[in-house]
Write a structure and sequence with these properties.
2 copies of one chain form a homodimer. Chain A has 511 residues and is of the alpha/beta class. Helix content of chain A is 41%, strand content 12%. The first copy, chain A, has an 8-stranded mixed β-sheet, with helices on both faces. The relative contact order of chain A is 0.14.
Chain lengths: 511, 511
């Protein structure tokens, strides 16, 4: 297969702000920026770079600048010339040695603090749950094992949890998936056809926008800000103008900003989506990890009463007013709300148990499409999740205290040590979405990586690039690592603070 | 989202042979044939049928015939008229009640013998393996859990099994997937671009051709026959003419025919694929389930010496001549061979552990693409598979005797009781690919279903429809069910034997 071509237009989107924060010659700045994209895995090995002329036009620079930048990348071993295929991205052996993009950071050591995935340590109750689950293995082994629907006991436990949260749910509305990402990809395949508009938040969870794009979706973004939340006017305009097939949102503790959608925006979203025939997918992967305040009703319970705090001072476990709950499950595909959940953020990432809550008609379509991608959710993990899901509320109580401490430590230290940053204190989730004030996120990430702290740069969360002024900082790590994280960020900021010379200097150490 | 349109051309392909074996009026035969497609799940609920005029042209019948057929389907509740969307497929409540296409047969009872999936009962050693694996849970819980590469111990065990079979393999050539289907879909996403030709066998494993089609592949088929094997001339011509991006083959105990590719055809395939730059994917999901004869070397070991029996009379466990093994792993993407394997057919379908063996460069690309679909293989199942895979040879020994008995019972009884059928006795695998002599596979399947025996009709295995003259009959079931299977097939054959009146009569009973 010939190499995949990166178009000049896509390259220009990825290269937003490539000249910012540096007074180096343009060709040096451009080659540095491209190198960051390669190291980050955003332009993967084997991809063919745009023709020099095309990229020059897209970036508004001379062709010589691009030629010199490519030549410098070739000298550094990041690009090879392939006959008939132009300039093809190549990873130097030090980076490519392990076939694991998770470890592409170059610095592979036990001492690595990898914070690209925001995830908690395993919940303490898992060994017990495994022990209890194993009693059911002999019975499970009597079955054929291929299970695209989900274990009935697990589906009932998931339905009960929704009911507990104020959204009455029947197990027939639940299908178990191999984690939330698998749920997103399955929904994208079934709901999106080539050329359909798909509304996503900007920033958003990157593998979600990849899945919708791969399904042929044309992404349209709506801004979300850590402090001011959703841009309701943009949301309404975009919905009405593009009538998207799908709107993918994280209304509760949005990733990466930590924002929660207000009651009025929820109502707006649901009413306009119903008018435009848009299926709303509400991803609650982070949604249960609330630290402060009162949890909202799940979005499928309707807009009224669905916002954070709108249920008044009631305890988080009490079943509040249900709004229009119940009707959502029986609604047709137009204007319906599909919920995605996951056991993995609450309990452990190694479980790979997620789910979809939708009307049985849509589930039926998902089940017909599913075998093209996989033949079912592993049975043992479902048996374990069946033991764990009923204990969600208790586990979250312990998680909440841990996360509160982590958030307060990290946010407090960053505010003190890096006062020029804008460091929000989110009401929950696993991360804070830091405003750096300058478009240097990739440079900062590179500098931190050379000290063994690996973060995802802001641009990863932009469906169209951008967000070089932001950094997602998890607060999931144990106390000693929090200190290390903040120390490294402070030093890295100082290193890149003056001019871009510091950045370029650090590259040699990384590669 | 508006309903998906079934094009007149696709409908005509699905309706191959719709008039065969019946002297009913054309509109009745057509509505019966469409009804079978709906019940079978091949035309799913919610799909919009072609416009009457278009389908009439594609089938070479009058528009009135199509109109009357649609009208009959509406009367029977299989089609609803949706304003602005024409005739949309609908499943009567009796069929749609459970959101599980596996149970769409209509007859849902404990007494159902569902043979649409060819799979063995769980291997007896699994509870022990689970027990042993659980000792490693505490250590595993210290990790983050998201594992797109695979547990190192499991990858080493899989590599060892290839080496044991005569194909020296390093763990760095292995990535663990969530079953073989997940491996196929991942490879399709990475290797196939929209419009690329993809060579598949005809017949072939249906979810594979679905995955390649979903990735945008344009399928080209090469005939495989249970008795005469691959059409080598067609294979060469098709490869040279279409230069496919991928050739997806099951060279060892092909599903559904049970055929094994000869040494000369293997050599031909590999040499022509190298010339056309085609990546060969060899799916060995069934490949280890040999009953008679000597296993071939894995295809990646090269053509010479790779054919069934070509290794002479050596024991199945002995490491024979290795041919060009070793070079395949380091070959570039052009002309390279990718192997797919699975623990699920050997041990248990509920495990969902498969793998890909490929050059690290390709694995790297797969790992970059993987998070768009899922974030990793569940950890607990990998721990269990790590215990099981090293025991493959011992488990296969017991499986072999069981399968030999099953095959000989089912094949023998079918040959005696239905002498007009062509019933091959395959050298392994889980099924026999029966030639019925007449294009009545769907009718036979419907009749058998009304007695609680559920089979996949031959057309399911045709990448372009067809195969109505064939039926895949598993021999995986315990002895009592073998008797029942053959009894039901004999009675069903008699019921549809005279004319199509019997088939139509049976529909009421099913629905």
């Amino acid at each position: 297969m010939p190499p995949v071509l990166l178009s000049a237009r896509s390259a220009a989107l990825l290269l937003t702000d490539w000249r910012a924060g540096t007074d180096a010659p343009a060709y040096e700045a451009l080659s540095d920026a491209l190198r960051v994209l390669v190291i980050d895995g955003r332009v993967p090995q084997g991809v063919r770079l745009p023709a020099e002329r095309g990229l020059a036009t897209a970036l508004g620079v001379s062709r010589t600048t691009v030629a010199n930048a490519y030549s410098r990348l070739r000298d550094d071993g990041f690009v090879v010339s392939v006959r008939g295929s132009g300039s093809v991205v190549h990873l130097p052996r030090e980076l490519a040695g392990r076939p694991d993009p998770e470890r592409l950071g170059g610095v592979v050591s036990d001492d690595l603090l990898d914070l690209r995935k925001a995830a908690l340590h395993a919940a303490p109750g898992i060994p017990d749950a495994v022990e209890r689950a194993m009693r059911h293995v002999p019975a499970a082994l009597a079955g054929i094992g291929y299970d695209t629907v989900g274990d009935p006991g697990l589906r009932a436990a998931i339905a009960d949890r929704y009911t507990e949260r104020g959204l009455p749910t029947d197990p027939a509305q639940i299908v178990v998936t191999i984690g939330a990402q698998h749920a997103i990809a399955l929904l994208a395949r079934v709901l999106v056809r080539r050329g359909d508009a798909v509304l996503v938040e900007s920033p958003t969870y990157p593998h979600a926008h990849e899945a919708f794009r791969e399904a042929g979706g044309r992404l349209v973004g709506v801004p979300v800000d850590a402090r001011t939340g959703w841009d309701a006017a943009a949301l309404e305009t975009t919905l009405r103008r593009t009538a998207p097939a799908v709107a993918y949102v994280m209304p509760e503790l949005h990733n990466p900003t930590g924002a929660t959608m207000s009651a009025s925006t929820r109502e707006l979203l649901l009413s306009v989506a119903a008018a435009t025939g848009t299926t709303v997918i509400a991803d609650e992967t982070m949604g249960e990890l609330r630290i402060d305040g009162v949890p909202s009703l799940p979005l499928a319970a309707g807009g009224a009463g669905g916002a954070g705090g709108a249920r008044g001072a009631g305890g988080s476990g009490s079943a509040g007013p249900v709004g229009s709950a119940g009707s959502a499950g029986s609604a047709g595909s137009a204007g319906s709300v599909v919920m995605i959940g996951s056991a993995d953020k609450v309990f452990w990432g190694g479980l790979r148990i997620g789910w979809i809550r939708a009307a049985p008609e849509l589930l039926h379509r998902l089940l017909l499409a599913r075998p093209t991608g996989d033949l079912g959710t592993p049975v043992l993990d479902q048996l374990v999740a069946r033991e764990l899901v009923p204990r969600t509320a208790a586990v979250l109580e312990a998680r909440r205290e841990y996360l509160r401490q982590g958030r307060d430590d990290v946010v407090g230290a960053l505010r003190t040590r890096l006062p020029e940053w804008d460091v929000p204190s989110p009401a929950g989730g696993l991360t804070t979405w830091v405003g750096l004030g300058r478009p240097v996120s990739s440079a900062l990430v590179l500098a931190a990586r050379s000290e063994g702290v690996v973060l995802a740069s802001g641009g990863v969360f932009g469906p169209d690039g951008g967000f070089e002024r932001f950094l997602r900082v998890p607060f999931t790590m144990p106390p000693a690592d929090r200190v290390r994280l903040v120390d490294v960020l402070e030093r890295s900021w100082a290193r890149i603070g003056g001019d871009a010379a510091g950045v370029r200097g650090s590259l040699a150490a990384v590669v």
